[in-house]
Write a sequence for this structure.
């Protein structure tokens, strides 16, 4: 079955460490996205990518970095510069038109202490 | 810019009750509108969508009508079940005409259905 796989489901890190969250899709979608979810704040867009080797900042990109070397993969690195990294991170993909729905992975819950 | 406002929760209902979750939006142009559902510990799943005014999206007994005159996209279900307990997100496309669909989400409404 086609879908989006995020790993790991839970991730724990010490403050000051960089950490990379994995996102892989086999839907053959061109566009991929990273959202952050915090209680009571809905979802906020971190980065998105329309095609391979291209990506743009979303609304809250500071302290994060991404790469898009393959169509299937869009890893997110949470750097030590991110002031409040503890959150639930959701990866999504879409066919790329503005009417096409997003397909989400099951998320990674990152806890930084 | 584009924005979405949905009613705060939690919404607590008894099984078989009627459900309405209000969603209103602010947008220029003609965005597409979506409802997503999130079960505990999981990602979001598309519930239904509407791409133009007066369209009605429907799925699994849920319905929502794209009302341009009232800028609303309220979610309704005639008879809820315990299995409908989840968080519901209203969203609109924020970059129409582009090559991506950068959705703008509401803050989510928690629905709790009691047997």
């Amino acid at each position: 079955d086609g879908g989006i796989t995020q790993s790991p489901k839970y991730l724990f890190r010490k403050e000051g460490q960089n950490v990379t969250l994995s996102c892989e899709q086999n839907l053959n979608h061109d566009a991929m996205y990273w959202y952050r979810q915090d209680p009571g704040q809905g979802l906020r867009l971190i980065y998105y990518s329309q095609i391979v080797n291209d990506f743009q900042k979303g609304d809250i990109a500071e302290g994060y970095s991404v790469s898009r070397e393959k169509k299937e993969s869009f890893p997110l690195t949470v750097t030590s510069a991110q002031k409040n990294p503890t959150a639930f991170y959701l990866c999504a993909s879409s066919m790329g038109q503005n009417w096409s729905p997003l397909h989400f992975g099951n998320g990674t819950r990152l806890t930084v202490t | 810019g584009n924005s979405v406002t949905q009613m705060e929760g939690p919404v607590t209902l008894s099984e078989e009750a009627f459900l309405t979750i209000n969603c209103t939006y602010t947008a220029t142009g003609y965005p597409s509108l979506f409802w997503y559902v999130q079960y505990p510990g999981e990602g979001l799943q598309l519930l239904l969508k509407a791409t133009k005014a007066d369209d009605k999206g429907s799925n699994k007994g849920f319905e929502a009508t794209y009302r341009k005159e009232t800028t609303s996209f309220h979610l309704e279900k005639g008879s809820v079940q315990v299995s409908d307990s989840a968080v519901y997100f209203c969203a609109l496309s924020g970059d129409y005409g582009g090559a991506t669909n950068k959705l703008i989400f509401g803050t989510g409404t928690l629905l709790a259905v009691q047997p």
